[in-house]
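Contributing new records

If you add data, match the layout below exactly. Sequence lines come first and carry their own label; structure lines follow with theirs. Keep one chain per record. Anything else will be rejected by the validation script.
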Amino acid sequence: MPDGVLVVGGGVGGLVLARRLALAGRPVVVFERSDRFGGQVARQTVAGVDLDAAAESFAMRGGTVARLLTELGMAEDIETPLSTPAWLHRADGSAVPLPATGVLGIPGDPSAPDVVHAIGRRAALRARIDALLPARVGADASSLGELVRRRMGRGVVDGLVAPVVRGVHSSDPHSLPVETASPRLRDELHATGSLAAAVQRIRATAPAGSQVAGIRGGMFRLVDALVADCERLGVRLETGAEAADITSESVTVNGRRVTGEVVRAATPVDAPAGRRITLATLVVEASGLDPAPRGTGVLVAAGAPGVSARALTHVSAKWAWVGERLPGLHALRLSYDGDVPDAIERATADAATLTGARIDRVVDATSAVWQRRPGGAWADTPEPAVGEGPAGTGLASVVAHAERVAGRLSADSPEPASGGRMEG
């Protein structure tokens, strides 16, 4: 039997797995190619304040991430967003508040005035047909877009669901599996008989403000805590570790052959490319932003004139701790599909358009490009795997999957052995 567990990749999935195995008494080594751990949970410093460079929140579903934070002594640092609503920048260039009682843009009440205002009376009337359809209609849909189209019509898909999915999941609703989008949605449709009723039931158990949460001081603090706890538990953490020739029982790291029980937590070189996302973060002076005219942010419909961003987050209006650390200033984050060479200039112009406020001065700004892999992109590897590829998008999925894999490996484990063995 190989000695110890070798985790190839030091993102959140790899760190959660390593920590859980170490708690079970397994010797673990984590090999990370870059110079830092955490993957797409990363810090950046803008205007002298550490902010999240990529992931800024986690879904509360299942309570998995909250339980992990509690174990790490961070329960009191969990913070929910401020209650101001997000807005929708429509394809015709106008802006309206996003309907309040929805899930991923799917309305819980198609007759609600804010729904009619957002998509128009005709589309809202079509959406009401959902209540008259048998529960089986759309129940076999593979994608969220297909399910909503068959139940509520194209107006809801194009006018509400597509902008939300584009901003939240960096995806198209017709490419997003129903279970990835909302694990309970299909079962609730069966139970209630309509999509609107299913949304209402989901909302009832996860009311506004409790569907997502963040960490006061930044999501990157989760990585700091995981690294510290792994070190406390004796996990060997190596950065600058280039892995090659990966098998289920060995891996070559910087020219050295290492034997052990291998778990892949890094994307294979032949995995589907997925999407490249540019994130631009601005800290600005803009008195017109003081009343948060677009709430916590703006989701942008595809094809909206004069705007290339797909979403804007008014970070300092969404998270109280950011506003406290930037008094008199505003933090904005804009996301784009693909590489954007002039990201800061474009983000500044888009921010003014999307918020309707004049940007008086850009105090500081950063931009970064991230590679987003589709869920299931590399699930079929010969060795066990964790991370966004096999788990799906989002920290809730990644953490829960890593915990399950660690549980299986612990259950299959022999008596604790020594750490991985180096050769050559």
